[in-house]
Every structure is written in structure tokens, then in C-alpha cells.
Amino acid sequence: MGVSFRYASLGDLLQNYINGTYIPRTVWERVFLLLKSRGIDVYSPGQHEGKCTSPYVVVKNTGTSGFQGSNQIGSQTLDIIIYYPLTNYSDMEPYTCQIQNFLSQLKEYIRSTGNITPVVIDDTVSGYTQTIEYQTFQRLRR
Q: This protein's superkingdom (predicted)?
């Protein structure tokens, strides 16, 4: 499944999220569950194994930084790393747009930074890859 949650199986957690009876604990979890609930094959970093034979997404927390002059408010960034099989370059952009449309449903929690990498070939998985960066504002943990 690609991720383990402490209190329930991913299937149970996903169904509870869809039913509205589970509130995600983090922004990363909220993004992961939204994409999973929309039928996207989604993983946490290092969880996907093997070659890219069908599209999938990796959600990665890339860190938190404070705003200049503040030790209480900052921002967290998330990378949405999209993988697509080498045989389907022409379908990569529509798939990326679909992911962006799904994530626009979380506009209360995240916003696109506008940073999108070019499509490159990842030889380790035999697929195309592209990264979209999102940001959330949050109170810093002390």
C-alpha cells in the first residue's frame, strides 16, 4: 500500500476519510488521502518498487522554514512527484493537470508555489518524472 498509519489499515483510514469520519493529522496526510480517494496510485518516499509501468505519484514533505523575523509562523513545502511510463509522453501533461485539479480542492490548506520542474527521464524507474511544489503556512513547532 505504500504507507502505514498508526491506528488503522490504509483501506479503513481511506474509507473513513471518504465518509468524513477521519480528519487528517497533517497536511502531508491530507494530500495523500485526497489523491488516494480520487483513485491516484500514491506513495510516500521510498515505497514504490520496480519500474514505472503505470502512472503514480510520490508525496514528499520537503521541510519547514520560518518567516524572517518570526519564530512562530512559517511555511512547509511538499513535493508532488509525478511518474509516468516512458511509452506515454503525450499523456504526461494531462495527468499532471489532473493531479493539479485534484489538489486545487485543498486550497484552504495548500497552494502551488508555481515551481514545476521540466519533465525528465528517470532511468532508475524507466519513466518520466516531474515535480510540482506546494506550500502551506503553519505555526512552527517549538
A: Bacteria
- Cβ proximity of 83 and 99 under 8 Å: no
pLDDT over 90 for what percent of the chain? Answer: 65
Q: What mean pLDDT do residues 65-73 have?
A: 61
Please give the sequence-ordered ranges of beta strands (E in DSSP) within 24-87, or none if there are none: 42-43, 56-66, 73-85
Domain that includes residue 125, residue range:
10-45+54-139
CATH number of the domain where residue 90 is located:
3.30.2000.10
Structure confidence by residue, pLDDT tens digits, 99-114: 999 999 999 999 999 9
Structure pTM? 0.83
Fill in the amino acid letter for 25: R
Counting Cα atoms < 13 Å in the Cβ hemisphere of 127 gives 20
